[in-house]
UniProtKB/TrEMBL annotation:
Source domain of life: Bacteria
Coiled-coil residue spans: 80-114, 159-198
Keyword check for Transmembrane: yes
Protein name: tRNA (Guanine-N1)-methyltransferase
SUPFAM superfamilies the UniProt entry points to: Bacterial hemolysins
Entry's transmembrane regions: 133-152
Amino acid sequence: MMMIRHFLFTLFLSISFTLSAQEQTAPSTAELENGTIEEQFEYIKKISTNYQEYKVIKLRSLEKLQNNILDSLSGYKSTIQELKVTLQENKTQINDLNQKLSTTKADFDRAVEEKDSFSIFGMLLHKNFYNNLVWGIIILLILTLVISYFRFKKSHQVTAETQQSLEDLREEFELHRRNTLERERKLNRQLVDALNKKDS
């Protein structure tokens, strides 16, 4: 019994060492299944045998590597295609946003212009122009008022002088008329006296 145990123990150890040695010498196929392309090439190099200066690769491993590379390329191509579609969508979106930005900027400029100006008789006037126009009209009215005042004052003075001259002329005329009437009366009296003397 002891011998059987010893035999079983030895058998167990040898099987364990053999399996362990196989795991270390033969790389696992998991590298070929799940590894990166670089890891897959390294795996192919490890499992291939040498013939003179060449490496002999099993056809099954080479086909598996080819399928993995083609799958990776297909995945990359689909990713590139998706990125191209996304890029085109982004370009379209950027163009739309640029167009909206231009429209918004034009609306903003129009709003600022409308804010800084207003419409009079259908004409859009800028506030600065309107202020200058109003102040120009006010200054023109003040200037017209001052000129009118001085003209009125001069006209009033001329009118007063003319009225004074007219009054003086009337007085002179009245004085002349009285003198003329007085002379006429004197002459009439003298005439009447002379006629009376002649008749008498």
